[in-house]
Amino acid sequence: MLCAVAAAELWGSTGLHAPHATAHAGIPAGMAEALRLHPALAPAYAEAGYRPLWTSGGQPTPASRTLIGLLAERDRAIPNSAHYDLPRLQALAAASPAQAGLFDVALSQALAAFVADTAQPSPGHRLYYVDAELAPPTSPAAVLHAARQAPSPERYLAGLQARHPFYTRLDQAVAASGAASTPGLRASLDAARALPGDGRRHIVVNIASAELWMFDAGGRIADHMRVIVGKPGMATPPMAGLIRYAVRTPYWNLPPDLARERARKIVAGDADLLTRERIELLSAAGADTRPIDPASVDWQAVAAGARTIRMRQLPGPDNMMGQIKFMLPNRLGIYLHDTPMKAAFAHADRRASSGCVRLEDAERLAHWLFDGHPPAGNGTAEQRFDLPRPVPVYIVNLPALSAG
Questions:
Q1: What positions constitute the catalytic site (predicted)?
Q2: Domain that holds residue 24
Q3: Is 3 a catalytic residue?
Q4: Per the residue annotation, which of 164, 356, 367, 373 is the catalytic one?
Q5: For this structure, is 356 an active site residue?
Q6: Whether residues 141 and 178 fall in one domain
């Protein structure tokens, strides 16, 4: 491993020195030059003492050839795979040991690009990772660190090749249809790249078909149900988060647009609306939240959007959250919840919510999330119950996928 002096000498104040100035310090031939071209990889190589990942004794390892083969497959969902520069990689693999360091870094750069492509769909289909624990490592240094931390390069590459069952199904459909494959099918395959292939327990919500699947460990579908997703103009966003807890007997905090809608009805003469819908008015959220007398509200201003007011529906059989909601903390305010409006699940078009995901059978989901022992609660409002372990949920847009 290089000493601190040698490492500092390598980097200097203006970047890497020429290859000949560092080769005798223990850096494989060509590596310094390559790291100057790909500086984002330099911290990961420095961390490992500039130890090669894909070469041994100046020769490509079997794992390097596996990776080149993986890149050469030209994944049908990655249209820009040319940036892996396969011809150059193949030429370097066949070059003399003097090029080993250059080959090692070039292949690591291709790996970083491949992982970023695989983990994150193209811009039009990307997920918003609302929980940092789920976000895949996509920076070059993070990818290389993960590869070195694996039991072996072969094991790491095997993990990269693991695919979600939905991805496999869509990939087979694209392969079968060939040039006749539809844009919706290809878009679905692109979006499905973000789904996990590691076999962990998780949930998938398909916005396009308004359906939800529960996956047990190993990729087996445990259950399926219909859902209701965001209506046009308030579409449910593609996102990935962790369901961390459930809330029994929840309140429903009305979104600002729905609060204005109710204000307009009150202005139009519906004086009993708040009582009929069991809605209370509150001051701003916080420790000093207090009830507000409806008679003190300037309803004309609220209806016009000139003033905001916080409305909260009390728990009960008609509460829009139903009897339970499942929380994946995020700034978008999106979560999964029960609903009293069960008839809506029979509709073909189930785009009707304000962005959240309404569940056909919330108790069935609770049973699965809590390993067969869902908490009953005692009727107290807003009772929180932490899950035995957080469960990932992927909300994606797969227009070509449906339970049928």
A1: 337 (proton donor/acceptor), 356 (nucleophile)
A2: 4-161
A3: no
A4: 356
A5: yes
A6: no
